[in-house]
User: Fold these one by one.
Assistant:
Number 1:
Amino acid sequence: MSRHCTTVVGIKLSLRVGPGSARTILDRTVSGRAFRLSFAIGPTLLRKLPLWFLIVSILTTASITSVVFVLPNFLHAKPDIALTSFPSSPTTLAAEPGRGGVASFTLNVRTVNNFTGIVSARIVGPPLGMSAYFDGSQALNPDAIPMGHSENVTVDLTASVSGNFTLTIDFTSGTLIRSISVPIISQGLGVDFNPSPLTISKGSSANTVVTLQSQNGLSGNVTIDTIPNPPPGVSPMAFSPKVVMLPRGGTVQMTLTIQTFSSASSGSATQYFASEIYGSVIAYRSDSFNYVVQ
């Protein structure tokens, strides 16, 4: 009796040819269960069939069996988590040199395919000039988030420079790792004094031109806060106009007038600028300029 064996996709096929009837046997174990397909070929038919035909029949049967019993194991969806950021548009904040503007966004963590377990969240190193941290007022601990059907995590941001950034947050649970990248737009307000320093005589007044520049798309009304305590010998400074409209990507100018008394001496003063849209302050900046009294 002769015997021919071949293996396809982990399925062992055996063809036995000998006296009497011949058989082909297909054995396969899937998920702990054994499957066997047997075919009986009479001796008359066996003599008429070429060996290659029998082997092709076995391979065809193996392929069909693989699709029926093996493929579903690969296509079966595993427990997972899905991540979504709110708002869906890029998060915008104002860059404030020295202290940083503040903004926040929310991340929704949702279970998929009956996921259960503890999820940990980690902010991947934020870009230079930006700080990011999980909202400390939340009851959830980002290091160990017990997953129900859905949980929210808030991320707070500060920025001291303007520009476009991407912030990445990793969520892990065992060997499961999922990440989400959130676009951040940091806008700023540039301020320039000309001339600087400003030369002024005692008991007289002088003007300096203040140029405000939109950085990374900042726009809106810019208002001026009067210095509550001007330097000794200097009267409260006057701006004209007091409110200007800063166009997106553009510049706008105003005039600053300084009046001195006979007791004035050279020094510097800090002026505060606030940019707002629809009454909501989105950029706040303080800048110092120098003046020389002769």
Number 2:
Amino acid sequence: MVDQDQPAMAARDPQRTRQPPGPGSTRAVERALLLLVAATDGTEATTLTGLARATDLSPSTAMRLLATLERQNFIRREEDNRYRPGTRLMQIAATTLREEPIYELAGARLAELARQTGESANLGIPIEGERVLYLRQVASRQLVQTATWTGRTVPIAGTAIGAAISGRLNGEGYAATRRTIEPDVTAVAAPVQGHAGDIIGALSVTAPTYRTGDEDVAAYGRALVRHAAAISLSLGAPSTAVVEAARATERG
């Protein structure tokens, strides 16, 4: 006896009839994601031509995929014809950052570092590909300041923040370099430890080299160590040295 309800049940249950996506569908998703990354990496090449070049796509393919991303509010095209993050992407970012305790804890510390040093203060975390992602920044109020790096990445190798994350520190617990990704910029950084005692990120101060002497570097380094230790303590890091440094920060 034939079950008359079977066709209806199949129609109501798309999992029973859905076919796996073909190679073309997967490739389209990959291309759209590459465009989304290129459009939000903080560079100036976010026009259609620039994005097509950055992702090795033809302008017509890039335009079609960008239109799809724009309809879904992942990106938006502004009056200057540059593409920038859309409201849906901002929502995802905000939700994700709320789940990162280090992001919330670093806010007040970065503001205090920027106030104490007069320079830009940053928070970075390690990501895949031997790189560091800048999660948060409080910019210097001085007329001449370093670039905004929030949302952008730098290599671990050859950077102060990368050295701090790798644990390559001087005897005072911080890393410093006079030559970074930006020319004529001095960077100083100190690591942040998680509850297991492993390094999960770093705080840094970046400043134009022409106004940053050796005494400044040392002062920035000591301040960074104290503030990074305070965050580590809040995250439950077990190190006695971290606890003592955090307590010294609170006292001074």
